Amino acid sequence: MPARSDPDGFGDDPGPASAFRRRLRNAFLKPVTQEASSIDSPVSRSVQELEAAVRSADDKERLIGLVAAPVAAAVGILVISALIVNDPPARLKDGQVNPLHVSLSLYHDLGALVLVLSVLMLVTAMWRKRLYLGIVTALYGLALFNLHYWGFGVPFIFLSAWLLVRAYRLQRDLREATEGSSPSKAATQRAGAVARRPLPRANRRYTPPR
Predict the structure, then answer these.
(1) Most confidently predicted of 13-27, 67-81, 85-99
(2) What whole-number distance in Å separates Cα of residue 59 and Cα of residue 152?
(3) Average pLDDT over the chain, rounded to whole?
(4) Residue 91, strand partner residues
């Protein structure tokens, strides 16, 4: 009996190894269904839906912002506390001024700034302002990054990049949908020029035949 051909190259062995390979194939090489592609496609959304999506963030983005805001406040307090504890003394052993010492007032100002950014993150998430939430999150991540706490700052920078990319894609889809549903600008200008064009006037010097 001839063996059946396997186009995927996984064989016809019904053993556990073949079953495991088939599961990996279905997990990583699963084709995109029509329903999933219609959700991601901008054509499936109307102009009104795209305008609503641009104006306000969805529930997932709002929830991420509401969770990230208190985490940002806690991380900011921990970072400023660690900086104050590890701050070198103002004077060296020989009595000279330590150039590595930082005033406590500066740390207090940094802590207030971090807390303000956390509150703004919470407010923009509650108001569903995707673009502003991404900008505030980026500023917070850059603030921690400049304080040399890269492990805390990089996740917030990634989160802000995700929000800003989603805002850009929605704006692009809305622009494409609006241009597709409305007449082109050149056609509108041509129609206006034709409407404003004056009518030809009769020549007074013309003498009709007798």
Answers:
(1) 67-81
(2) 25
(3) 77
(4) 97
